[in-house]
Amino acid sequence: MARSSDPTRARILAAASKLFYAEGIRAVSVDAVAELAGITKKTLYYHFRSKDDLVAAYLAARDQPNLELFKRWFDETEGGLPDKIAGIFNQLARAARHPKWRGCGFLRTTAELANLPGHPAIRIGAAHKKKFEAWLQAMFAAEGIAGAAELARQMLLLLDGSFAVVLLHRDASYMETAGEAAHQLVRAAQSARGGLNPVSRASGAQADARAPGRRRAAAARSRPA
Predict the structure, then answer these.
(1) Where are the residues of the annotated region Disordered (predicted)?
(2) pTM score, whole prediction
(3) 141/179 Cα distance (integer angstroms)
(4) Check: CATH 3.30.70.1050 for 62-222?
(5) Domain(s) of CATH 1.10.357.10: residues in the chain
């Protein structure tokens, strides 16, 4: 097995990532990956023992970059904690409006492997979601929010639920609506502990005032031109 730093292996993985995300793992053959990578199938199997191994590597390669992207969106969003959480959803809504957006690669791959619960790719996908949940929980706990674990799980459910609904309806405003719900839940959790600071209180009031306008704008976008 070649080292992970091998440029040929990286090229194979880049080709697989492009095809698997765009078309799904079932629809893409090893031959198609080898062709896009500009190698022979024999070379591919030198670097990856099987297609299952390649699928697992595809998800593993998405793990840290995706987590870092969520953290960057959080850090770049102005306002208090509720705004920053909602900012993740709003950035995802922007991404979902791109014509090449195909939803969450972890969820889609897991759905295609639903009859293979022991598949390594499913374990990688589950671990990725747990890492995101743990990151949220740690942030909420640092804010002194009681029930940080439950709140983090609610955020994950809103996020993954909106992934599914947006993919079904092709309407990114569902992601924004989920972000509004996340904002309200986090703000309520802060209020329950009596720790809503002035920035969060002001940003919450502004979000409440903006919400009807966002919903009207979303409705306008969803109407036929």
Answers:
(1) 195-225
(2) 0.83
(3) 20
(4) no
(5) 62-222
| Model pLDDT for residues 22-57, shown as the tens digit of each residue | 999 999 999 999 999 999 999 999 999 999 999 999
CATH code at 1-49 = 1.10.10.60
Query: Distance between CA atoms of 39 and 115, rounded to whole angstroms?
Result: 31
pLDDT single digits (tens) 78-127: 999 999 999 999 999 999 999 999 999 999 999 999 999 999 999 999 99
Radius of gyration over every alpha carbon of the chain, rounded to an integer in angstroms: 20
**Which residue intervals of the chain bear CATH 1.10.10.60?**
1-49
